[in-house]
Amino acid sequence: MIAAVKRELLVRHLEAWAPAALHRGRRVTYAHGFADADGGESAEAAARVLVEQTDFVRGRELSMLLVGEQTDAVRDRLAAVVGDAALTVFAVSGGTDARLAVALKAAGAQRVPLLGFLDSSAGEPPAPATVAALAAGKPAEFLLVLPPGTAVEPYRAGWPLCASVELATGDEPGELLLFGTTSGKSLEGFKEALWAVDEFAGVRYRDPGDPDRHLIDISLSPHPGPLRRELLAHLARVGSATVTELRTFTLTSTIYRAADATRVLHTLVDSGAVTRQPPTGRLGGDVVIGVGD
């Protein structure tokens, strides 16, 4: 079931990313690492989304780069999906860590819109340098899935905006999904996709920053409890912050959306758990929120 959640999230993000990237750049590259780890299922799902975009490719180049231990079978599987669509598929075998950076250069993916998807949950996590190689795109972003218990901090280096979520089925640690981007708008889009995926039986989210490790049902209106705790803990550390700063903290340091922060702040103010300056009026971005008495 976790595989289904990851695949739907990839599809939803690609559906938003691909048309925007094609509008921005003459050449666009999607890189799919560990392409053979699941028999090519996620690569096929991605290819179907990209093929749907080829009607809008006139005058542009849309490429899909497959990298893995042995990608021949995946390339053959995708051939029937791609057909005569204007999608160029490059397949490179020899391992994602060993080949991705070189393959990106060979495919001309520097300084063009670039999205990388690397699902390493079935084996060893990639080297941080492998993920960093995706920053050659402009703009660039990545979706990375790591085995349970893997530290995400090394993969954040060089990426101005990141967010992570744990995909869990119980109390034990779950797979970690990390998203990195150079665009605040894209981070907002990822968060919207995160909560819009279909709820699969037994799969829930956990915010890596929640000390209570609360499991959250996948919903367009997620349970606010963990966010409430994280906002109060953040305010206890910093003393006070504007609504805009707290929305940014929520977007970049929790699994929630900026809009979720606004809703939770309203309840915290109404209950007296936090103070606000000025004490009345609309809860605008410049209102300062402080810890309660």
SSE topology sketch:
Elements: H1 2-24, E1 27-33, H2 41-52, E2 61-68, H3 72-82, E3 88-93, H4 96-106, E4 114-119, H5 128-132, E5 140-146, H6 153-156, E6 161-168, E7 175-181, H7 184-196, E8 204-206, E9 215-216, H8 225-238, E10 240-242, H9 243-253, H10 258-271, E11 274-277, E12 288-291
Parallel strand pairs: 1-2, 1-4, 2-3, 4-5
Antiparallel strand pairs: 5-7, 6-7, 6-8, 8-9, 10-12, 11-12
Helix pairs in contact: 1-2, 1-7, 2-3, 9-10
CATH class value of the largest domain: Alpha Beta
What do we call the CATH topology of the largest domain?
Rossmann fold
Class from secondary-structure proportions: alpha/beta
User: Which regions are unreliable across 5 or more consecutive residues at pLDDT < 50?
Assistant: none
What number of domains? 2
Molecular shape: elongated
- Main beta-sheet strand count, sense and barrel state: 9 strands, mixed
CATH architecture of the largest domain: 3-Layer(aba) Sandwich
Tally of helical runs = 10
Structure description:
With 293 residues, the protein is of the alpha/beta class. The chain has two domains: 2-215, Rossmann fold (3-Layer(aba) Sandwich), CATH 3.40.50; 225-291, Orthogonal Bundle (Arc Repressor Mutant, subunit A). It is 40% helix and 22% strand. It has helices at 2-24, 41-52, 72-82, 96-106, 128-132, 153-156, 184-196, 225-238, 243-253, 258-271; strands spanning 27-33, 61-68, 88-93, 114-119, 140-146, 161-168, 175-181, 204-206, 215-216, 240-242, 274-277, 288-291. It has a nine-stranded mixed β-sheet with strand order 3-2-1-4-5-7-6-8-9, sandwiched between helices. The N and C termini lie far apart (45 Å).
